[in-house]
Amino acid sequence: MKSIDIPAIRGYMGSIIYYTATFTFKQIAERVSPIDDELYTSSSLRDQIQRSLTKNYVSIKNYILTQKEHFFNALVLAIYDGEPTWNELELDFKGIDYYSMGFLRLNGEEKIFPVDGQHRVEGIREAIKENPELEDETITVIFIGHHNDKEGKEKTRRIFSTLNRYAKPVKPGDIIALDEDDTVAIVTRNLLETYPLFINDNIKADLKGSKALSDNDTKSFTSLLTLYDTNRIIYTYYKSRNNKQEKIYNSTKISEFLKFRPEQEELDAFDGYLRNFWNQFCNIFPGMGDYISASADPTAASRFRNKNNGGLLYFRPVALPKLVKAICETCLRKKISLESCMQGYASIEMVISNNPWIGILWNIRNKTMITSNKTVILSMLMFIYDESLLTPKELDNFKKSYAKALEVHIDQIEEKLALLRNAKRLKI
Question: In angstroms, rounded to a whole number, what is the distance separating the alpha carbons of residues 122 and 117?
């Protein structure tokens, strides 16, 4: 491989000297190798790291190929052998001398492997195989020196570990606010600015990333993270129905859909569907219209979520996504309309200080929420609506979890289920 001179900036952090430059996608494919024995001598450790580092490259390849405005942060590349040399330039700009700019010469015999960016490297490599026109695109690279001895391997492993251990993940709230690929995030942002239920600060954003609402919150319908989760459930049903699935897509499949921004037509279609869903929800479920009418009032939610009687189930962040998921699952399994399904669920007792929610969502003695039984809520709602909705396995699991939540023996659960079947006849 022929030698090349790369314009670069030299810097240092701690004891590490590094060089910032750009590589074309073609240079990435030709000159950067996967990690093999540079970090570990143990074959089992090499196999382990290779499995963990290559499993997601396909999604990155697809992102490059399908998203016109694709962009990545810098790759961190370790470089050794081949005697790379640094040729520094003296730059005088506005009377100030700069000595950190120059050219890094690679003679083609050096070995380069990714310390951070393994998935991106493999994704780039596969993308240009399918579309060679991408070869001239560039990506920022940061070169660090690597010595292929015991001390050098320990140093590089430490960098590798640090980059992965201390890199701060993006907060879910920031994804909702900033993500331009995630369909649910994009459409949720639109609704936050225009839809009556969500405007006027009716949705609470928590800087700590909490889905819960404070006991003192008398204004909000729900939290931002809860709204996103709920809209994602609706999106899951939307995609499952449109693709004529017999079962709801699992979370992994939906995550794949949300990695890539769709065409504007598809965004508009889901936006319309989501608005229709919430329109029907607000028209059918008791209290929603009254809340919207009064939502400019700082105490608008106090009638529907309070310490005295707990309020309505769907004003509680722990329960709203479960209700919406029950609606979506029921629509798909029974092949009925959203309107018909919601009307059925609206006839179920929704005040959490009344049975069947006492002991499940509401501690009647302390007048406090119970949050430890949230896994039971979905099955409870579907059972009350129509117990035949649950598969034999789901019904068996529900009986066990319901007995555990009520702190009764499994032998006593049939008596409790008989009471539960009457919950639909109760009035709010």
Answer: 9
pLDDT at 176 over 90: no
Q: How far, in Å, CA of 354 to CA of 428, rounded?
A: 9
Peptide bond before 356: cis, by omega within 30 degrees of 0? Answer: yes
* pLDDT, position 226: 95
Tabulate helix, strand, coil % of the chain (nearest 5): 50, 15, 35
d(CA 260, CA 93): 43
3-state secondary structure of 87: strand
Q: What pLDDT, on the 0 to 100 scale, is given for residue 384?
A: 94
For CA atoms 404, 405, 409, 411, give the dihedral sign.
negative
The whole-number pLDDT of residue 428 equals 33
The C-alpha atoms of residue 279 and residue 424 are separated, in whole angstroms, by 23
Domain ranges of the chain: 4-166, 172-425
Cα gap 277→318, rounded to integer Å: 20
pLDDT confidence of residue 427: 42
Q: What CA–CA distance (Å, rounded) separates 358 from 363?
A: 6
> Considering the entire predicted model, what is its pTM?
0.73
Residue 211 structure tokens = 């889905």
